[in-house]
Structures are given as C-alpha cells and as structure tokens.
Specification:
InterPro entries: Glyas_Bleomycin-R_OHBP_Dase. With 205 residues, this protein is of the alpha/beta class. It has helices spanning 14-25, 56-68, 125-133, 164-171; strands at 6-11, 32-36, 41-43, 47-52, 72-79, 84-89, 95-100, 115-122, 139-143, 147-150, 157-163, 177-179, 183-186, 192-193, 199-201.
Length: 205
C-alpha cells in the first residue's frame, strides 16, 4: 500500500524542534522529522498533525507535556461530539491536534501515540482526492467534498484531506496564510507537488 513514510517539518532551529517533539510527545524522529529552512512563511500553513491516543487521559498527558515544553494552547482539551481533544501550537509554528475517539479512560494513563495523521487543508477536496488516487493512494473513507481519509500501512503517517477554512476553524486559527507550507512528505509515490503546493519526495531524497 502507498503511504507516507515520514513527514519532515522545515524549521528555523532543528535541534530545538526535535527536542520539543521528544519532550512533549515522545517522538523519536522516525515518522516526524525536522530540517533547517529559511523559507518565508506566515499565518496558517495549511496543515495540522494529529496524534491519536486511546483515551482522554492520554490526551491530557500529551497536552500538559506540550505546554510544559513551550507550546501555546490554541484549544483546551475537552469533550466533543466525536470524542475528546485539544490543539496546541509548537514553538516552531506547527499546529498539533491531540485527540481520541473515546470519552472515558479505560486503563492507566500514558503518552502512547496510536496513530499520526497529517491533515492538509485544500481548496477542492474532490479534485485533490482524484489527484492522489491517480498517484496510487487508496481511499479509506470519503465524505463527499468535505473530508477524505486515505488508507495507510501500520507505522506510517495517515493522510487526510479537509477544506482549508474548515481545518483552520478546527485548529482554532485564522485560515489566512502566506509563503511556504514548511512541510515535506516522504513516500514511494513521490516526487511531485500536489495542487495545493504540498511537496512530496521519494524516500532518501
């Protein structure tokens, strides 16, 4: 199956960003990587990264750790119709959603991340879905022109598409943004640039 092997965030200070990922989320640089960039960017970069956990207590643990590591809270962790979650912005500017579909704790609280999801905000969900299908990705879930989720292999990063303004609203930020997305996706289906300017690379590039 064609999946995203890893996501590389382009940041001003790679050392500080990697330390944040480790301290806040326990990420080891396998699926979420960093590299230096001076590309201009401003406002909403058009994507969020979601860390999916098993229960609300795990979301709270990640949320607290992120704030302790220097993140800014965009939305507090709280119950919603679909589950429980909150949103933070890392010091490097990346927006992280911390979420679970469960509304009750069923075991000891940990900071274990079950899944990493890259949500990219696009202008035309249907058109971008067809673009990716044409490059070998398989649709897992699709809700018309509102949301698409692609199937992914275990241990990879799941890709989802959302309307840009809707994603910004979920993240708690303005949809306005300029310049580079400052994110690069590594996958066997690369290299290419999608209709919304997101760059894909082949592994090892």
């Amino acid at each position: 199956m064609n999946s995203i092997d890893s996501v590389t965030l382009e940041v001003d200070d790679p050392t500080a960003a990697a330390r944040f990922h480790s301290d806040a989320f326990g990420l080891d640089g396998d699926r979420v990587r960093v590299r230096a960039s001076t590309e201009p960017t401003g406002g909403f970069r058009g994507f969020t990264l979601s860390l999916i956990t098993s229960q609300p207590g795990d979301v709270d643990a990640l949320h607290r750790a992120a704030l302790d590591a220097g993140a800014t809270q965009l939305k507090p962790a709280e119950k919603s119709l679909w589950g429980y979650g909150g949103v933070v912005q890392a010091p490097d500017g990346t927006v992280w959603q911390l979420a679970t579909s469960s509304k009750k704790n069923t075991g000891p609280v940990t900071r274990t991340v079950d899944e990493i999801v890259l949500l990219i905000g696009v202008e035309d969900v249907k058109a971008t879905k067809q673009f990716y299908v044409g490059r070998g990705l398989t649709v897992g879930k699709s809700f018309g022109g509102r949301y698409v989720e692609f199937a992914s292999d275990p241990g990879t990063v799941k890709l989802s598409l959302y309307k840009r303004r809707a994603l910004a609203k979920v993240a708690g930020v303005s949809a306005d943004g300029t310049g580079s997305h400052r994110v690069v996706l590594s996958s066997p289906v690369g290299p290419f640039t999608d209709p919304d300017g997101f760059v894909w690379e082949a592994p090892g590039q």
